[in-house]
Design goal:
- It contains eight helices and no strands.
- It is mainly α.
- It has one domain.
- Helix 2 packs across helix 6.
- The longest helix has 28 residues.
């Protein structure tokens, strides 16, 4: 009887092994979709927080000169959180939905453009109910003159985002 049980167990193991393609079954990974959504939300929240903090600092009664607020570190911090948001969106779609990847790159490029032009300040002010008149061209000129250490890195980041979008569009169209 014991021999029959052993033979039956071996046959069952062989059948399971064969049905798995000859590989041992791997445990299921944690729910990737939930993790990807959490990453996307965290990146978005950090980008928005930093954007609004920048506005608060600029509008504070005892605010330092704009050059002390809008510097290279601030440009890089805003860019990094926008980039992380982009990467989380792509991860959420597993890179397989090419339309979603293109849309994520477009959104990232849009955020970088609003940073480079200074428009992000007007948008943030409107978001918190403190809109101010903004002549976009005047703001862009002022930002470029007053805060070149903020604008110059953003030019590179914008070009990088444009290249990423072009690659995503090329991959989408290569179907």
């Amino acid at each position: 009887m014991r021999r029959k049980t052993t033979i039956l167990a071996c046959v069952l193991i062989a059948a399971v092994w064969a049905s798995s393609g000859g590989r041992a079954q791997q445990p299921e990974p944690p729910a990737e979709d939930g993790l990807a959504k959490a990453l996307e939300e965290a990146a978005r929240e950090n980008y928005e927080r930093l954007r609004l903090e920048t506005l608060d600092e600029m509008q504070a009664p005892d605010a330092p000169r704009a050059t002390q607020i809008l510097d290279e570190r601030r440009a890089e911090s805003l860019y990094i959180w926008s980039r992380r948001w982009l990467e989380a969106e792509i991860r959420r779609h597993d890179g397989g939905d090419r339309e979603a990847v293109v849309a994520a790159w477009k959104a990232h490029l849009g955020r970088v453009k609003t940073l480079e032009s200074g428009e992000f300040l007007a948008i943030a002010a409107k978001d918190v109910g403190k809109p101010f008149d903004d002549e976009r061209d005047l703001m862009k000129t002022w930002l470029a003159e007053e805060c070149p250490n903020f604008v110059k890195p953003l030019k590179y980041f914008r070009l990088e985002a444009e290249a990423g979008l072009a690659d995503a569009v090329k991959a989408r169209n290569a179907r």
